[in-house]
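Q: How do we represent a protein-ligand complex in a form that can be generated cell by cell?
A: Start from the inputs.
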Amino acid sequence: MIRKILRRAITKVFLRGEPARRKAETIPASRHGIRREQVSAGARRTCEALQKGGFKAYVVGGAVRDLIAGIPPKDYDIATDATPDQVRGLFRRSRIIGRRFQIVHVMQGAETLEVSTFRAAHDADTLKDEHGRVLRDNVWGSIEEDAARRDFTMNALYYDPTEELVLDFHRGVEDIQKKTLRMIGDPRARYREDPVRMLRAVRLSAKLGLRLDPKVQAPIRDMADLIENVPAARLFDEMLKLLFSGHAVECVKRLRDEGLHHGLLPMLDVILEQPLGEKFVMLSLANTDARIRADKSVSPGFLFATLLWHEVLASWEKRKQAGELAMPAMFAAMDEVLDQQAEKLAITKRIAADIKDIWSLQPRFDKRSGRMPARLVEQPRFRAAWDFLVLRTASGEAPTELADWWDEFAHASHERREAMLVPADKDGAPKKRRRRSRSRSDKAESNGETKVSGGDTP
Ligand code: ATP
Ligand code: MG
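Then emit the C-alpha cells for the protein with magnesium ion bound:
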C-alpha cells in the first residue's frame, strides 16, 4: 500500500507534461455520422465476439478518424480490455504477435484485424533513452489511459459498432470537423517521447488536408534532429507509410516546409534542390500516388530506386571521369549510395536487391545492337526497368524515342526485332578491341554502354 502511494507520488512528479487522462464524451450517430455498415464486416464481427465474451471492444484510431472524415479506412484496429491470451481464446484463427507489446492478429475471411489490449500510461518506470525517447512499455491499463497515450486527438476515438456510439476523450471529433491536427498533451514532450510523431503529423495533415495546430507545428523545426535517434528500421517503415500514402507529393512538400526532409532520406534535400533531380523525384512520387489511388500495385524497390537515382548518377559520373570502366563504376556507385542510406534507413535486403536490379539494367537500354536487346527483354525485371526508363525520359534525362523503341521491340515479332536493331557501329556500345588501345581520358569520355547520365548529372 505504502509502496503504491509512494509510486503514485513519484509518478505524479514525473508525469508533468504527460497528457491528462480524461473522461470520454459520448457522441451519438447523429453527430459522428458513421453508419455501422461502413465498418468492415470483419471488424464488426470481432467487436461483437469480444463483447459477447464479456469484454469491451471498439474500433479505434485511424479507421474511426477516416470514417468521420469521409475517407474509406485502409485497415481496422480494435482496442479491448481483454488480454492477448483472452483474445486468442475467443478466435480460432488468431495469433499473438510482438514480444515487447503483444497484440493479436485476428483473421476474419480475407481481413486481418489488429486487436490490442488497452495500454497503461507511461510512468516513472518507463524506460527512455537519453533524449527522452520511450524505449519500452508493456503494461495494460484503462481505456482512459489508452486514449491518453495516443498521439493526436482525432486518433483517440473509440467506436462501438453495436451501440453506434463514439467515445471521444480529447475532443477529436470537433478537431476533425475543424480540420485541425491537435496533439494530446504537450507537443514538445510527445515529440521527445517519440520523434516519429513529427512525421505522422505531416503525413496525416497531407492525407486529410488538415492544418497543423500552431502548437503542433512550432516545435518541429527545432526538434527535427531528434529523428536521427529513431532506429533505422522504424524510420524505414514510416517512410514507406508516407511514400505509399497516396499523398506522397503533398507529404514531401510539407516535409520540406517543416524542415523535416533533411534527416529522412539523407541527401533527399540535395536531390530536391537540383532541377532535374527534383523533377525526377516529383514525377516518380506523382506516379506512385496515381497508382495507389487507382488501387494498382506499387513496389518499394522501384520507388526507392527513383529517389536515389540522381545520387547514383552523380557518383557514377565522378567515377567514370576518374577513369573507372562503366559497369564496375556503376556497381560501385550503387553500393556507395545504398551504404550511405543504410546508416539511417534500414532498407531491407530484398528491397535493396530490387533497387540494384532496376539501376543496373539502365545502361543496357543504350545497347540496341546484336543479341543484347533480345536478352534484356527476357529479364524478369525488364518491365520495372522499362517503367524506370519512362520516368527518366519524362524528366528529360533520356530521349523519349529510347523508351518507345524498347516498348516496340519488346512486343515485336522476331522479324520486326531483327529489322529494328541498330547497326553495331551506330550503337553506343564499346568495341572491346578498340577500347584497349584508347587513352584513359578517351575512355572516360565515352566509356561503356552509356549515354545514361547524358551530362545531366550535377
Ligand atoms: P493510417 O492507418 O491512416 O496510416 P493511423 O493513425 O491509423 O493512420 P497507425 O500507424 O495505423 O496510424 O496507428 C493506429 C493508431 O495507433 C493511431 O491512430 C494512434 O491512435 C496510435 N498511434 C500510432 N502511432 C503512434 C505514435 N507514434 N504515438 C502515439 N500513438 C500512436
Ligand atoms: Mg491505421
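The radius of gyration is 27 Å. The pocket of adenosine-5'-triphosphate (ligand 1) is lined by residues 61-62, 74, 77, 150-151, 155, 194, 196-197, 200, 241 (CB under 6 Å).
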